[in-house]
Design goal:
globular; 5 helices; about 170 residues; about 55% helix
Length: about 170
């Protein structure tokens, strides 16, 4: 069996995972004023969050960040799966950034001085999309009969492509 985390995935997974885990753990210890601020900003961009209390929202956000950070840091979670989670989460954050007045210049996604801390969400989205678009993240192991034990790409029918040396 081959590793689910390739060497070129290690640095972005470790840095992003550590960032997400730290952010989530800090939110788990948030005071009431911080909870109200987070909830108010999120509900302004996404009205569906008005149905939740500030405490519930902050716990949901923190738990999501902790779970995503742990998934990115774990070598047992495939990069494609971790990338899908990161992409979904970052898409919501980028939407929040774009829906919040004063965070970006009018008619442009470029941040204002107040929006610079939120603009990092584009980096998270880029890392997630990079994981999803990496062919190595979607590679399958060769069958047990294969001698070279390197990942092969499977076609739609489930058979190996011609490039795999063990095909006859």
């Amino acid at each position: 069996m081959y590793p689910v985390m390739r060497p070129h995935h290690i640095a972005p997974r470790l840095t992003t995972g550590a960032f997400m885990l730290n952010s989530g753990l800090r939110k788990l210890r948030a005071d009431e004023q911080t909870e109200q601020g987070l909830h108010g900003m999120a509900a302004g961009a996404y009205p569906v969050f008005n149905r939740m209390s500030p405490h519930q929202f902050t716990r949901l956000l923190a738990s999501t960040e902790v779970a995503l950070g742990a998934a990115l840091l774990s070598p047992l979670v495939p990069t494609a799966l971790a990338g899908a989670g990161l992409t979904a989460f970052a898409t919501g954050l980028v939407g929040f950034y774009l829906r919040t007045p004063g965070t970006h210049q009018k008619g442009s996604p470029l941040p204002t001085d107040e929006g610079v801390p939120l603009a990092k969400d584009f980096w998270l989205l880029g890392i997630g999309l990079g994981f999803l678009s990496d062919r190595q993240a979607w590679a399958w192991p060769c069958p047990a009969a294969c001698r070279h034990r390197k990942p092969c790409r499977r076609g739609k029918s489930g058979h190996h492509r011609k490039s795999c040396h063990h095909r006859k």
